[in-house]
From TrEMBL:
Identification of the protein by name: Uncharacterized protein
Function statement: Component of the MICOS complex, a large protein complex of the mitochondrial inner membrane that plays crucial roles in the maintenance of crista junctions, inner membrane architecture, and formation of contact sites to the outer membrane.
Cell location: Mitochondrion inner membrane
Ranges of biased composition (kind: Basic and acidic residues): 1-11
Cellular component per GO, a single term: MICOS complex
Organism expressing this protein natively: Cyanidium caldarium
Membrane topology per record: Single-pass membrane protein
Main location: mitochondrion
Mitochondrion recorded as keyword: yes
Length: 116
């Protein structure tokens, strides 16, 4: 069965509405509050994870290589510090990327022209 073709001259043809469907949102098109919250969640999670990894690695090295309790504690503390430092560097990079992305979004918005 053939469908009837709608021509431009047909006054009964309905034009597609401009507000029929909202544009699809991309994963990066979310409010900055949610992006900041996600960044903080990842920073805290990464900090806890890397601190634990550093504690375990430092403790293992301390047990294997050193005999005294103070030496073992120092190496364990050093390993924990390295883990926290790695987490800090990762979080700092992520927040810098987020800030740069937010700044470029704000710069790309063309403000309303001023009338003098």
């Amino acid at each position: 069965m053939a469908e009837a073709a709608v021509t431009k001259d047909d006054p009964t043809a309905s034009a597609p509405s401009e507000t029929s469907a909202p544009p699809t949102a991309t994963p990066d098109a979310r409010p900055s509050e949610l992006a900041m919250s996600d960044a903080w969640d990842r920073a805290i999670e990464t900090g806890i994870k890397w601190a634990a990894y550093g504690l375990l690695a430092g403790g293992a090295v301390g047990v294997l290589l050193f005999r005294g309790g103070m030496s073992r504690s120092a190496v364990t503390g050093l390993g924990t510090g390295v883990g926290i430092g790695m987490a800090y560097a990762d979080a700092r990079r992520e927040f810098a990327d987020l800030a740069a992305h937010t700044r470029t979004d704000r710069l790309s918005v063309d403000p309303a022209p001023r009338t003098v």
